[in-house]
Amino acid sequence: MDMETDASDVPSSIDENSISDELEMISTQEAINVVSVYNKSKLVESIAKCQKPLCEDADFECVMNMVNGTICEAVSIIESDPRGLFCYKYVKNLNIFDVEPTINLTEPADSSPSSDFLLCWQTIDQFEYGNVVAMIRHYIGLWQVSPQTKCVVLSNRRGREVALKGQIYFVDAHFSRPSQTCTNPLAVAKVRFIITVSRILPKHYPVMITYRFEGYRTLYYALGERAVNSNSFQRLYIDTILHSKLSFYAEICVCRHGTVDKPKESDESRKRQKSCSSL
């Protein structure tokens, strides 16, 4: 797989009005559902029911009520995040799977990979969008995709604020399979990476990174206890998406132009035949 990256800003592909109910991945051709975010008003109402006192005076009963209220608030926040994007267990080993990369990002693809390749995700207190994008590039480089597959990583620095929880950012990866006759193929398999920077967790926790393939609802985790310990299943998704799109475009081409054995006449050729027959 050849890797090309573009860390420059691209036009935002995020719907500006959907963050409160459901975040959506918007591509140039279709929308891809991302993750449902708990309704802000429901969460605020749930926390308000906890009735946590301020406890300005050293009152034991007030302290007990404050502790109970804090626990109640924590439960409400955790229950509002079933996917574990903002509330998750600490990842002890930040290094991803102990495997060699399928490509080398700085050397030709046919060169021997380095066995010292290790990837450590950034922590919350050290979060920088550009560095996380670079890590995602390296992570994609570990995927065992089909030969001649090309990937372009597109960044989008405009984050979104999720009430009471933190920030969410996006990175898009476009996979294609160009050839000598078609250097810019129409068929592109899109993968959206979701970066969540939690405001709830301790600062030494790593930022959570998940991703979803175009046309599929399953959300995959790049790290943590929900991460899939495999770098080969992504190939099936990418190949399936590319094959489906190529088949669709081929059918359109047959409908418009016919086949090699039975080509369809264009409107111009028909007009020429009519003009010749009238002479």
Mean pLDDT: 75
Judged by helices, strands and strand pairing, the structural class is: alpha+beta
Please bin the fraction of helical residues.
25-40%
Strand order of the largest sheet: 1-4-5-6-7-8
Compute the number of structural domains.
2
Please state the oligomeric state of the protein chains shown: single chain
Question: What is the terminal-to-terminal distance?
Answer: 58 Å
Q: Quickly count the helices.
A: 5
Number of beta strands: 8
The percentage of residues in β strands lies in 15-25%
CA gyration radius, whole angstroms: 25 Å
Instruction: Give the low-pLDDT segments.
Output: 7-35, 95-117
The run of helices and strands is: EEEHHHEEEEEHH
GO molecular function, one term: protein kinase A regulatory subunit binding
Protein name: GH22688
Question: In a nutshell, what does this entry contain?
Answer:
It comes from Drosophila grimshawi (Hawaiian fruit fly). By secondary structure, the chain is α+β, with helices and mostly antiparallel strands.
List the helices and strands and how they pair.
Elements: E1 2-9, E2 22-26, E3 31-36, H1 40-48, H2 60-79, H3 129-141, E4 150-162, E5 166-176, E6 189-198, E7 208-213, E8 220-221, H4 233-257, H5 267-278
Parallel strand pairs: 1-4
Antiparallel strand pairs: 2-3, 4-5, 5-6, 6-7, 7-8
Helix pairs in contact: 1-2
